Request: fold
Amino acid sequence: MRETWTRGDLGLPLGRIKRRVGRIVQKSLQRPIVIDRHAQEPIPGAFIIAPPRSGTTLLRLIFDSHPAIAAPPETLIFPHLLGALREERVTRAMWNAGFHREFLARSLGDFGRSFLEAYARTKQKRFWIEKTPSHVEWLPELYEACPDAKFLLLYRHPFDVVRSMQERKMMETQPRLTAWLRDHPTRFSACCAYVACQQEAMLAFEARHRDSAHAIRYERLVAEPEDTLRQACAFLGLDFAPQMVDFASARHDIGFGDEKIHETQEIVPRLDTFAGWSEAERTEARRHLRPCLDALGYQSGLTPRAAAAAITS
Amino acid sequence: MSTNAGTVEPGSRQNATASLLSGSGDELRAAFGHLKRRIGRMVQKSLQRPIVIAPQDEERLPGAFIIAPFRSGTTLLRFILDSHPQIAAPPETFLFAHLLAPLRDERTTGAMWNVGFHREVLARALGDYGRGFLEAYASSKGKRFWIEKTPSYVEWLPELAEAFTDVRFLLLYRHPFDIVRSMMERDMARTQPEIAALRDHYPSAFATCCAYVAREHAAMLRFQRQHPAVVYELRYERLVDAPERELAAACAFLGVSFDPQIVRFDETRHDLGFGDEKINETRSIVARTGTYGDWSAQERQEAAGYLRAPLEALGYAV
Reply:
């Protein structure tokens, strides 16, 4: 037990408290830093958003055939950059260094866009379109980083999407998807849950950001390409170009996800691919996907072909 | 199989090959068309020219990274160097672990290559971009040299060297036992994500911390062997024992004049961040060496088992 207190004993904690308070004040007064380095005029652009196997490559090649649009193969780079926004430790650390979240997000977006803009410049085009299917998992951060970009949300009958993902064994082979297998009894079930989650995220995004989002239906795109593309172009602020429908005549750079489609010379509808599913499979798929089916008007009993007709009529 | 001339049933190579073998006129033509297109695309791809991103015109500010595992004295070193009139050392940013991730993911570098951005261009672009934050920070402080320390960057050394061809690396070593001791005190095998990720592979938190430090020091020693010209080795023990001498040599390496004032780091204001909880109460350099003095012989033996390689390479006694 201590019986006497000296000045030093009291001085130390007081000094400490003073410093601590001082630092809190200093921290709250710290001004955010802004980097301004716009070397070149930015080029506008849009993201194609969809789960894998929704027809994104077809849509990319169509847009890439437009004389004003450059749509490169998927870049995969944004999820890495946007990871910084999803990790709270980073956003807080950057805040401590003087970079506030809003600024960090815009800066990351500008940086990611700079690759797409450089690509468009080399192709002498004035609009870029980027499609990377995993972007669907990054919608909130992507919008935060690129609020000026437009978002083309591509929907396809979720059963067809699941069917195609199954065919390519994507749940087993894509590292970011294998995590879904942990929470579901079968690969089929995990795949249905994944597609449901992504399409629901797209629907929610569409509802929140009506001005930035435009929905495209795969079924309508393949049935009435010209009308569908005219509307999409109008949304992007560009004129429709007939070359788009004749996409096989133009040269396109080749990348991931293009293995099959670049052998294709014209739009080939792939509808009702799930016709061979058992009743049990349909029931299981419906269990996960009912909200998407309802919201998108793919009535449970209706085939995509019929649904397409219903949408277009 | 119905195929129109010029259109291959989009599906498979097998279709094309089968058509070649069975050989009806239309099918044969379609199969040839398919092969021609495929070869054409391969040629096109190999001729595709890389896209070059022009380097930013403005002059870049020089800088350095402090590299060390957690609990090595990096915050002390940051505060000291941040006290230098020419050097700005912000709190740890953690940013580069994300910015450099594309370089570690082969799919992404492959995808970017397809678009026209070769690995070197991508690496430089990522480095230049990340550096912009550190330069902006230095400029906002009216300084012209930046130093960044984030302990988790030990694991990103190869990518850092790729992204930055002109920065320097201050590798800070401390007796591994002291580091482990400090990590245990802070329960870092549970609280620090980088270390917690290893926990399942080792029998105890103690073993996890030992293995973590061994891995980090091994990475630093390897990097030092590979890039001797850009690396300067600092020792925590020398830094706290004879700060002026150690810091004068470090400043000479960085190409900034040594200012003895920097030893009195508490007289300068520093921005605060992670890892600064304890040190910002500290007013002077306090040597924390031999903190593992109370370890049992068994603990020492276990630690030495994990840490033999760095202990020997760095000449630390057990």
